[in-house]
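Let's do one together. I've listed all components of the complex below, 678 residues spread over two lines.
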Amino acid sequence: MKPNRVFTAMMMVVLLAVSAGGCGRGRTIKIGAIQPISGQIAAYGSQTRDAIQMAVAEINARGGVLGKRLELIVEDDEANPEKTMNAFIKLTAKDKVVGIIGALTSKCSLAITEDAQAKKVVLISPSSTNDTLTAAGDYIFRACYRDSFQGGVCARFAVETLKAKRAAVFFDISNDYSKGLMQNFKAKFATLGGQIVSTESYNSGDKDFNAQLTKIKAKRPDVLFLPDYYSTVSMIAKQVRSQGMTLPLLGSDGWDEITNNAGAEVAGCYYSNHYSPDANDPEVHNFVSKYRARYRITPNALAALGYDATYILAEAIQSAGTTAPERIRAAVSRTNRKFVTGQIKFDGQGNPVKSAIMLKIVPNLAAKLRTEYAGTVNP
Amino acid sequence: MDFWPQFWQQIANGLALGSIYALLALGYTMVYGIIKLINFAHGDILMLGAFGGYFVLRRFGVGPASAVGAFLTAMLLCAGIGAILERFCYRPLRRAPRINALITAIGVSLFLENGARILPWLGPDYREFPALSKVNLEFWGINISVVQLLVFIVSVLLMASLNWIVNHTKIGLAMRAVSFDRDAAALMGINIDRVISVTFALGAALGGAAGILYAADYPQIEPYMGVVPGLKAFIAAVFGGIGSVPGAMAGGFMMGVVETLTKGFLSSQLADAIAFGILIVILMVKPAGIMGKNNSEKV
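Okay, and this is what the predicted structure of the assembly comes out as:
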């Protein structure tokens, strides 16, 4: 009887090997997403992931891509570049995804662009705005505008709408996003004839800003530009107000969600963003109502960008007709249609040319805050 | 604003920051004084105190009664945790080489931080601590918020209470005796285990109060929030003389003022470098710290 048992065991191993091997060339097309689901900007990462999942569900309901189901694998990078790299290695080496949507923050995305280009994996960042992102090569794309544009948008808004002549900038020196915006804002503000009266910095994780704010106050600026994420900005804003400074604060797309994380200290302040949920646009309206129906909250700009990035990737795979990396890359670069966050057509470097929306923070009922559309700035 | 008003404003900022470092440094110094252990988990006690206060304030709203309740809850909770940590993590190592206890302390710190991170009701996300007050005061050209003033006053009150306990009560006498010579104190009939537990609990209670004050001043709490203030308070304790209670207070205030003046008049990037540089200089020049005594070995 022994030879029979050995034979059966061998057959089972062979069967397992064949079916496991078959899974590789499987019935699904795998894409990856790297987002900060926990940590300091979890509000961004979790909504982006939810929007990506909603997009994948919609695409699969319509028959998937190339006749196969789209399978999404999400990794949490906690907005920490080391974890982003680990997530990237896992998605490419173990899961063998054909494209990655991520990362969210510029600092994390920049950690993986070289590797993505070298390994020929299409990387579409929904929201990294730092200028140097796409310099790594033609496999790197983004669904949002760049900081050289965004910094300029804020500077123009400060000069033209807020009529500011003296500006102070307070930025995070260990954050590429913050540094890039600071440089672009200062350059444009000076070109438009304004005077930068104070530039101060802090480090990621700092909690006490009083020393630098006292210095800024002494220079009597008309507006204070704070290019950082909502969690840090809400802390700084409190200390700004407790020092007796009543000037308007100006921010960038990292402020999105600040209405849920701060109080009266940011009322009457402005920030630039990628879209406004109350815009008079059918694409926006559709997206917002579907997201609200599924998740019961109004989607923020990061969610809208994640949704658009997913569609860019899925439609590119469909139009390429194959999962070969070079074909997908070429198809992504040919993208040209209107998405939720605006018209997306890539220039030669993987950057779309898009407009920015300015939002104003206004008080709502029950002493809460909401945002109000305050203008569009076209490129 | 010319130099002098700005200088006094920065001093005010520094004293507000320093009072928290001082309160936290007391926990380090008391534990070191009594069992010669640097309790690296002390910064995480701050974090637990902040979360304790957060839940109380969320449940009962913000007001004078609930604020006092939050303090009491945090202090009792942390005192309990301090006593438990001492009993199960440090007491078994009392006769072991000191490095064993040191490494255990690091382990406890990691355990508390990562444990808080994975527990669902604490979790890794940042939370906003309820604002105790949004009023700002201004006098003689200096701006301070009511919260900063409260932090300073409460810290000073707690430090004064600790000073009274250590110098004017029997248990304080026992604590000083045990820190002077543990075996001789045991021979005199002092219950060493009880005294050490009380010391730990007291230090941790102060750490819990410091947690609420820190969260009131910088209203963002998360599991790793105690790491940096813990480190700075440790430097403050060493700077002032580790083992010396007045030293820890002086060290804490000085750290706060030095850090703020550096950010205000030199460069914010140099603030941490200078703070740690002070530690190096003190260890080279006067290792016992400003108010510390060189304990010579008695043969």
